[in-house]
Known about the structure:
Elements: E1 2-5, E2 15-20, H1 28-36, H2 40-46, E3 58-62, E4 71-76, H3 85-101, E5 106-110, H4 122-133, E6 154-158, H5 163-187, H6 195-206, E7 212-216, H7 218-224, H8 227-233, E8 241-248, E9 259-269, H9 288-303, E10 308-318, E11 330-332, E12 338-340, H10 348-363, E13 367-372, H11 376-382, E14 387-390, H12 394-405, E15 411-413, H13 418-423, E16 431-432, H14 441-450, E17 458-463, E18 469-470, E19 480-481, H15 486-494
Parallel strand pairs: 1-6, 2-4, 2-5, 5-6, 9-10, 9-13, 12-16, 13-17, 14-15
Antiparallel strand pairs: 3-4, 7-8, 8-10, 11-12, 14-17, 18-19
Amino acid sequence: xxILFGKNAQISYDTAILFLTDIKKLPNKAKMLDDSVKGHIxxxxxxxxxxxxxxxxxxxxxxxxxxAYKRVLIMGIGDVKEITDQKLRQLGGKLQVALKTASAEKAxxxxxxxxxxxxxxxxxxxxxxxxxxxxxxxxxxxxxxDEAKADIHSVTLDAEELSAVKKGFKEVEALIGGVDxxxxxxxxxxxxxxxxxxxxxxxxxxxxxxxxxxxxxxKKLLKMGAGAIMAVGQGxxxxxRMVVLEYNGKGKVSKxxxxxxxxxxxxxxxxxxxxxxxxxxxxxxxxGGAGIVSGVMKSLALAKSKKHVVAVxxxxxxxxxxxxxxxxxxxxxxxxxxIEVLNTDAEGRLAMCDAMTYVxxxxxxxxxxxxxxxxxxxxxxxxxxxxxxxxxDDAFWAxxxxxxxxxxxxAWRMPMTEAWDKxxxxxxxxxxxxxxxxxxxxxxxxxxxxxxxxxxVSWAHFDVAGxxxxxxxxxxxxxxxTGYGVDLLYTLINS
Length: 495
C-alpha cells in the first residue's frame, strides 16, 4: 500500500474516505459529496442501520454510477475528547480492514478543515494503515478466495497544507520498514531461517543501508571462549553465530555507543533433552528478540538517525542429538563465570549472556538493553498485551515507560529482588540456569542475566515471549508476527 499526498487528477479514485463524529451533521466535504449524489449518503445514514459514528465503527455506502467514486467509506470517530495517539493508530488499522472488505484499490481521504482530526495526526492513521496492511504470504502458491480480493493500492490525503505531514511521514516509512523486516524474520520457517542464513539475510538487508555487519562463526566463538552460546547450539548441525550490527549516524568517530542492544535468536527450540512436550511448532518465533533488534537497526538507518547504536544477535538452534548439551553439564561462559545446566530448555539466557559480555567488553556502552522471548512465565503474568521489563535503574525505566506510552508497544515493569539473585547462585558452579522454586520464572531469568552486567552499566531486560506473535487478529496486525518492540526501542534510542 502507498500513502500519497495531494489529490492527483490522473488517479481514478474508487473510494472516498470520510470520518464522522455525528451522523446528523455532515462536515463540508461530506456535505458536498452528499449533495452531488442527491442526498444518498445522508439518507443512508438516517436509516436505522446501526451506524452511530462511534469510535471504530464503519459503513460502506455504494454510490450511483454518476458519482465521482464507486463508494464512500465512513469511519466513526466517537468522542473527540477521548481520542489518543494510540487510538488514532488503531483507527488506521480498522480503516485498512474496512477498505479491504470494500475491495477498495485507490482511496481518497477527504480531510475536513474543521480540525476535528488535525492534519498533523494523519501520520498516526497512516502508521496504523501500514501496520495492519502487512501480510506474510511468500510461501503460498495459491491464495484463498478472501485473500484474492484486490489489494489496496493507495490511500491519498487531500488537504490544503501538506508539507509538515509529508516530512513527518518519512519517519513513519522508516519505522514501518523496520517493523516489516522484523515480521518477515519472525514469520520465516526454521528450515529457511537458521543461524547462518539469519546472519546472511541481515547482512544483505542492512549493509547497503550503512550498517556495519560483523559475523562471528562457531570457530571464532570457540576461540574467544563463548562456551555458553556454543553449548546451546552444539546439538545442531547448524552451528551458532553472533552477528554484530553497528550503526553510527553521528557523522564522526564515536568510541562509545549511545546504546548497546542484545537480541535472543534461538531460531528453533526443541527444549533440548528437556524436550518440549507440546506446542513445539510455536518455537519458530523464539528468535523474536533478534528479529526486533534487526528491525530497529533498519529503522535507524532508514531514518538516518543521529545516534550511535551497537547490537549483537545471539543466534543458535537448540536441538537434540548425541552431541547436544545435557542437564547437569557445567559450562564456562565468555565472562569466565561457570554455569550448571539444570534445564536445557532454559537456553536463551545462556546464548544471551555471552552476547551481553561481548558487547560490553568490546564497545564500553554505558547503557544496555537485552530483548528476548525468554520465559513462558512472563506470558502467564502479562498475557499478550504487555512486554515485561526488568531493570534496577529507576531513571532508565522512566525513559522506557515514556517511550512505551508514545508508541503502540506496551511495556510493564516487573520486580527484581535479592531473593531471586540467591536462587540462581550455583552449588557446583558459579551460577545455575534455573531458579530454585517453581514460580517467578521470569524474575529468576532476569536475575541470572544480571550477573553478566558490568557495575557501571544501566541495564534493562525485556521479556517479550507473549507479544512478538499473536494467535488472533489485532487492530494493528493480522494473526502472526506483530512487529512488537521496534517502535519502542526506536523511540527510546531517539529520545
